[in-house]
Amino acid sequence: MNAELARVAEFCARATGFGVVLISTDAIVQWSNPGADLIFGAGERGLAGVPYEQLFTEEDRAIGTMQTELAIASDGTFRRRPLALPD
User: Fold this and answer.
1) Reported pTM
2) Which of 18, 35, 44, 87 has the fewest CB atoms within 10 Å distance of its CB?
3) Count of domains in the chain?
4) Is residue 84 included in any domain, yes or no?
5) What pLDDT score was predicted for residue 47?
């Protein structure tokens, strides 16, 4: 792991102001940061093992928001932007 990636991983692991989840190819949450756990009310148990679909409202599921996000994440259409982390 390069130094920049390690710094991002450490920042995400401690952040509570925003949520980060890592999901498997079969759309199951594998890891979540404290922010995601707080946003979704997971508490200390975290979100690991929760189907990604459960993180979306019924309305979002109906309009395909989850499928859009999965497609963007898996096909490389997400454009990497510089990430400014606090010191």
Assistant:
1) 0.74
2) 87
3) 1
4) no
5) 95
